[in-house]
Amino acid sequence: MDNKKLAVIHIVKKELSLGDEEYRNILERIAGVRSSKDLTDSQFHKLMRYFVRTLHYRATSTGVTLRQKYYIKQLQKDLGWDDSHFQNYMNKYFHNRDLESYSKHDASNLIVALNRILKSHRPTTRQTQ
User: Fold this and answer.
1) 71 and 34 in a common domain
2) Domain range spanning residue 40?
3) Is 12 exposed, middle or buried (CB count within 10 Å of its CB: 0-12, 13-18, 19+)?
4) What is the pLDDT of residues 61-83, one digit of tens each?
């Protein structure tokens, strides 16, 4: 199991406010393991389908998608921004602090902006001859 998938699982665990015992029971019931590190790719996808069906992740047809939300959270992590910094950025440039109320279109624009920032922060490597 790669680290990005583990991060997604733990984001979902936190968002659903799952205690450790409840979380491990879900892992065991859905995927047959007690630790997310033991998940195969197919078990990971089965677990994600289970989480997506919870009421917490149901959105309107025009709202931010779960996939967009996870990607945005990963970009936030890659940038090293805490929640306060991230919300201030969203408010300053998108006039909305609450990711949950973004439309699909707004979330797409946010993803583009965050990717540009991330790209500009990464050092470019020159090939020396």
Assistant:
1) no
2) 3-57
3) buried
4) 668 887 788 899 999 999 999 99
